[in-house]
Amino acid sequence: MAADDLPALIVGDVHGDIERLFAALKPYPADRWRTIFLGDLIDYGLFGVGALRFARDRPNTDVLLGNHEVAMLWALRDRTRIGFWISIGGQQHDLDELRKDEPLQQWMRTRPALLRLTDRTLVQHCGNDAYLNLVPGVDSGIVDAVNRNIQDLLVNEGERELWDLLSSPNVFETQPLRLERWLELTHSRRVVFGHKPHRGAKPATYHDGKAINFDGGLSRSHRLHQRGAPLAASVGPLDQATAGRQSLQGR
Ligand SMILES: [Mn+2]
Fold first, then answer.
1. How many Å lie between the centroid of ligand 1 and the Cα of residue 68?
2. Span 147-170, pLDDT tens digits
3. How far is the CA of 31 from the centre of ligand 1 (A)?
4. What tens digit of pLDDT does each residue of 29-63 get?
5. Centroid of ligand 1 to alpha carbon of 166 (angstroms)
6. Which helix H or strand E contains 55, and what residues bound it?
């Protein structure tokens, strides 16, 4: 079965906690789900590169680019950025590992930033429309145009611009008009993102399910969320997130 025919399983920011990732994925065999990682698999926790390799090799799986992956690639190319990357949770042994593994570098540099599913769900790292800054004047095919420009930036030393973009704060929870405009421009009916822990026990849905945050603070090493949130706050079926949802508008 093609991955498109499988129900979507969303995985929020893993941040190096491969042990909790394995536990969270246990109920969801790879051959029965289309697994989509929202980016930020690395940093804070000790097994960032391990998480990347695992996600890359899992069948029927897509991995999106997060701001932490960009910071790591930046540190890889430019040693003067290593200190900054360490300051945001980078693990030196992960960088050493990545330096030895060119195919993994190559794979990281070709990750998309936006993924649009056939049910018109748009999946991305941060809950923000800053992606538009990459495609001024483009009014159709925005998703593909953004991904193309991001590929260019990743191979042409554009990490600073990408870091700024993918570090944009989540705004869709509190800015419904901006959310509506983004959905309209990308011909989507809802958007799924991670990037900042929502602190709920389940993925947080906003504005009648048009915006869903799957960053449940999975990693026990997370800078903002070290108490160990429930696994189901970060990992679960896309369509379970909207069934029987409670309104968290404005939270
Ligand atoms: Mn992030």
1. 6
2. 999 999 999 999 999 999 999 999
3. 28
4. 999 999 999 999 999 999 999 999 999 999 999 99
5. 7
6. helix 48-57
CB-based neighbours (< 5 A) of ligand 1, an ion = 40, 66-67, 195
98 CA → ligand 1 middle, Å? 19
**What Å distances lie between residue 121 and 69, 193, 239, CA to CA?**
23, 11, 11
| Domain parsing of the chain, residue ranges | 3-242
Read off the pLDDT of residues 124-153 as tens digits, 9 standing for 90 and up: 999 999 999 999 888 889 999 999 999 999
* Topology of the domain covering 3-242: Purple Acid Phosphatase; chain A, domain 2 (3.60.21)
> How far does residue 89's CA lie from ligand 1's centre (Å)?
12
Write the CA distances from 145 to 56, 65, 69, 127, integer angstroms.
24, 15, 20, 18
Q: How far is the CA of 1 from the centre of ligand 1 (A)?
A: 32
